Amino acid sequence: MGSAFPVPESPAALAAALARTGYLADDGLATAGYLAIRLGRPVFLEGDAGVGKTSFATALAEATGATPIRLQCYEGLSAAQALYDWDFPRQLLHLQAVRAAGQDADPTALEAELYDRRFLLARPLLAALTTSPCVLLVDEIDRADDEFEAYLLEVLADAAVTVPELGRIVAEHPPVTVLTSNRTREVHDALKRRCLYHWLDHPDLDREIAIVRSRLPEVSARLAEQVAAATARMRTLELLKPPGVAEAIDWAAALDTLGATELTAELASATLGAVLKYREDTERVRAAAILDPGTDP
Amino acid sequence: MTGADGTAVLVGFARAAREAGVPAEAQRTQAMLAAADALGPADPAALYWAGRLTLCAEPDDLPRYDAAFARYFGAAAAPRRARTRTGPPRRPSVGFGADEAGTDAEPTATLTVRVSASAAETLRHRDVAALTDTERAEVRRLIALLAPATAPRPSRRYRPAPRGELDPAGTVREMLRAGGEPVRLARRTRRVRSRRLVLLIDVSGSMAPYSDALLRFAHAAVRRRPTRTEVFTVGTRLTRVTPALRARDPDVALTHAGRAIPDWRGGTRLGETLRAFLDRWGQRGTARQAVVVLASDGWERGDPALLGEQLARLSRLAYRVVWVNPHAGRVGYQPLTGGMVAALPHLDAFVAGHSLAALTELVGVIGDG
């Protein structure tokens, strides 16, 4: 079932493959991805919202031709939603069908039949263990409860799950795992210890321009540069929510939709909602006169 | 980077990093060796990333790691400019599992309480700033017995229950057991869990007589709900002391916390430290829907307008904001300091915290609603 995860030659080769999908990774992130594949360790990504934590996993899957599987964490996430569940209605249906057919089935055989793999609903974690090659994205692990974290640790450490009625299901080729966290609470050290830890920073200006251009090829070079520069300056203003790369891309897309090829003060002011999400931030940016194109570096 | 020499160099580096405060213990060191091996021949940049990805555990480790790397391999080897992070190291680099006095201290404590019950009653209302050493020791013991905790609220998880809403999955499972007949209807109800409790304690000079009692109160809270309580000290800097306060023994915990706090008895820049808290922790989720207790006298040296602005932000995030001001316990106190005036409109409760009785009252306020 499936094949082993294709191992790139070097971090640089992985970065190039990621770039072809439109994701521009820096040295550290490419090295983290490369080591994750080579060593079979999960990558633990932290960083401000909108710096590209989640899209890294999707890009990694696309670049390597692996299946992406995503598990979104939230408070109250339980094993039945993350790992597997029995399809009880179908089991019942099967039971009724056997009865209707009037077969005098051997009870032991019937019972074994009921707990067959086809009645097992694979949730993301089990799906990731049985699909290969695949990239498993455990998104916003800090939102799940601590109990779930311990459970995840167990699954990741063994790359195996024990279903009492079926036995142990071992991954032939363990998935390449990417965990992301927004640091709303501290994730337990035992989990982090098994991971490669990477802090994602906002990209520098050149990289950000390149990211905007590669994501939105239709945007003019001038506009991409101006948007990246304005976003970078906004980040220096101590805003409540400094804009991330995601916001810069949204903003450029919004401006492009309006037919802009250049950032003007009126256009910027009209589309500010794409990049700033707090009234206080909008006021601060307006006061700092960052949107005046005359202040280009 | 395979040979024995290479390994020795890397293990030596891991040790240097550990001394610098990076959590580079054995398992992480092994991971670094494997990573360096996978990345191939020693290239300073690859080595830098091999170590950084495996040895570090949080953003605060990164500047320490960078410094250790530059020291060990020479400044030229570091491929990256040092990060400019102004925050203090928030974790003490010492371990904190020491609970030597923990096991046999507790029975003594309860015994003493029983013996001196009437004395305790008179102590309850005394200002902790004006106690003798013996009285202070007694009050400390009594504070350790407080168990501040937020009220439980329904969580998103369910548990089976004799009554409550119908549990479809459970009922079907029961039916399966009975050969398809709905013999018993399974029911479920929501589990309960408590809100997060966040304590921000001012450790500046003007609060010095009360910081010890308040930190002990925080320790009692952390001991009660270790995973649902966060404690920070504020002053001129923001310091997270939760890990230090997890030690069982209050004295050990306070020693560790003291070591972690760089701005004991300094000035107060509440507005700025509160902003640091909200930027780095609060807005991401620590303060969301939490009960936030801010213990300070409101002697703000910075701009009171900034404090008001940040408190407004905090009150929008938090479930309740409680301000504890030890000076409020004095007869004829009026909240007239600049910081207090700016803060008052954004508070849900304003309480004193100067005596044991006042702290007990605070337990009640925290547990409300």
Describe what you observe in this structure:
The complex is a heterodimer of chains A (297) and B (369). With 297 residues, chain A is α/β, with parallel strands linked by helices. Chain A is built from 14 helices and nine strands. In chain A, α10 (205-215) packs across α11 (221-235) and α10 crosses α12 (245-257). Chain A is elongated. Chain B is an alpha/beta fold and 369 residues long. Chain B has three domains: 4-77; 155-194, no CATH class; 197-367, 3-Layer(aba) Sandwich (Rossmann fold). Chain B has 15 helices and eight strands. Chain B has a six-stranded mixed beta sheet with strand order 5-4-3-6-7-8, sandwiched between helices. In chain B, α2 (26-39) runs antiparallel to α3 and α12 runs parallel beside α13. Chain B is globular and about 75 Å long. The termini of chain B are far apart. Residues 81-117 of chain B have low confidence and may be disordered. The chains are: A alpha/beta (297), B alpha/beta (369). At the A-B interface, α2, α5, α9 and β9 of A face α2, α3, β1, α8 and α12 of B.
Fourth-tier CATH superfamily name of the largest domain in chain A:
P-loop containing nucleotide triphosphate hydrolases
* CATH fold-level topology of the largest domain in chain A: Rossmann fold
Beta-strand content bin of chain A: 5-15%
Which residue ranges of chain B are poorly predicted, with pLDDT under 50 across at least 5 consecutive positions?
A: 81-117
Oligomer: heterodimer
